[in-house]
Design brief:
- With 146 residues, this protein is an all-alpha fold.
- It has a single domain, classed as TerB-like, CATH 1.10.3680.
């Protein structure tokens, strides 16, 4: 699902870098993670070549925190997707997602809720995707997430 977000180039690059860093926390960067990173890049107007260049310059890009609750929820969902894209739940990746949630001012419990949603979708052989309806529920109950 493509949501209407007005993201700056710096924010997109920062998000892609942090997704990459999350993927590498288990000391591996597998093809599923690379494909997912490329897909998110394309979704945000960044070519695969540009994603590769961004990743090479990873240490030079500062973290740009999402501004709105909508951005925060979408970003967190994408972090969790990256964590699960290789069908392995690594405790270090889960811990990092919880830290990211907290850093963005969200409740750590949201990580578990979103993880369960994604795993359930995969178990039912559906494409795990944050729908407009789910996003709306998260946004409209944002006081419960902070």
């Amino acid at each position: 699902m493509k949501f209407d977000l007005e993201l700056t180039t710096d924010k997109i690059y920062s998000h892609l870098i942090h997704l990459y860093q999350l993927a590498k926390i288990d000391n591996r960067f597998v093809k599923e993670e690379k494909r997912y990173l490329y897909a998110l890049g394309r979704k945000n107007g960044v070519t695969e070549k540009e994603v590769d260049e961004i990743v090479l310059e990873a240490s030079e890009v500062e973290f740009h925190e999402p501004d709105t609750i909508k951005e925060k929820i979408i970003f967190l969902y994408e972090y969790i997707q990256m964590m699960l894209v290789d069908n392995k739940l690594d405790e270090r990746e889960a811990q990092m997602c919880a830290i990211i949630a907290e850093r963005m001012g969200l409740d750590r419990g949201l990580v578990g809720s979103m993880t369960n949603s994604i795993v359930t979708a995969k178990d039912e052989e559906k494409a795990p995707e944050l729908t407009d309806h789910e996003l709306s529920l998260y946004i409209n109950n944002s006081e419960d997430l902070l």
